[in-house]
Structure formats: structure tokens, C-alpha cells
Amino acid sequence: MGRDATLRELASLVADPGAPRQVVHPDTPFLEDAASEDDDLSDRPSLVTCFCALQDIDETMGPTLFLPATNDRAAHKRFFDRDPAVKDALLRETPARLSTLGAGDVSMFDSRTLHCGTANVDWNANRSRALFYVSFKRADVVDPGNPGSIRPCYDGALALGDLRDQFAVSTTKRAIPPLFEALSRHDDRPAETTPRPQQKKTTKKKKKARGFGA
Description:
Blueprint: E1 6-15, E2 47-53, E3 64-67, H1 73-79, H2 84-93, E4 97-99, E5 106-110, E6 114-117, E7 129-137, H3 160-173, H4 179-184, H5 204-209
Antiparallel strand pairs: 1-7, 2-5, 2-7, 3-4, 3-6
């Protein structure tokens, strides 16, 4: 992706007990204008997504099911074929992998890869599956083919290289990286509607009562 890949998604996904299985799908299509029959750009994803588990995820909680090696032109051509039998054959022939994760584990994938969230059937323990996810878009791709789950004013506001640099500095200084400060510079809301912090008036009498001294 490179340092100039830009932030496209920053959100969370929660599946409570009883949540049904999703249909198999890619998050973004194979972009024909990004690759031709004569080149090998199919190995370059337009969007890379990371799913981070916020708790341990076992088979009953609706883990993501991936169909590896379905992020290329051939797989997408079969998946979107007008003949349902062609798509069904692809799904039968492709070995599936269930993404069970431990808390803090991350699965990173090309967003064109076929996948789906499975059903959360954890009725006994009543556990929800929560994923934090973030995705970055390749700099030379204008539209990956699917709107990102992020406010439009934040889309592309931060490059991957900037974020890595911020984390490097914050690790040294033991501070939170100024991610939201960077995003706020791209806020397209009118200035008059931007909320301002309210200052509380504290009298000398109240200071004594609250133990702040004279």
C-alpha cells in the first residue's frame, strides 16, 4: 500500500447473539480500470482492511469466514456471473477459513476477498462479537467501489505514513497519538456549529469547599 495510503474506514462492528449469518461478499469489487489483461496489478489491493478482536472469538460467536485467493479477476468474474451455477461452483470449490481470534488479534485482508460474518449462536454465555476495524486505500485509487464507514470529511484525512510516525513518537513519549487532532483539521462543519468547551466559574468559597485551598 505504501506510506501514502489514506485512511478510509475507522469503525466497529458488533454481532449480538442471534445475529444471522451474512451472505458471502467482497467489500470492494475488482477494478478493471486498475488492471488490464497484460499486467499483474491484480496483486495490488485497492483497499486493505484490519479486523481487531476486542475479546476472544470462538466458533459460536459469529467469526468471519474467509475464502482465500478470491481477490482476483477470475474469482470475481465467476462470483458475479449471471448463471447462479457458476457462482455456486466457486463457493463449493473454494476452501473456507474461519477467523477465530484472541483478544487483540488482528486479521488483515484484501477487501476484494470473499468473506462473510457467520451467525452468532452463543446462546448460553450470551456473548457479543465486537471488532474494531480500520482500512486504508491505495493512493492512486480514486474510488475503490464502496463508500467507507467514516464521515466524508475524514475520508483521506490521514496517510498511513503519518499515522505510523505519530505512533512512533507517542511510544517514545508515552502519549496518545494526535490522530483526532489531525482529523479535526479536515472537519468540514461550519465554524459556528463546532462545539466549544464551556468554562466553569469557580468562586473562592467553592474552592475552599472542594479542598483546593484559599
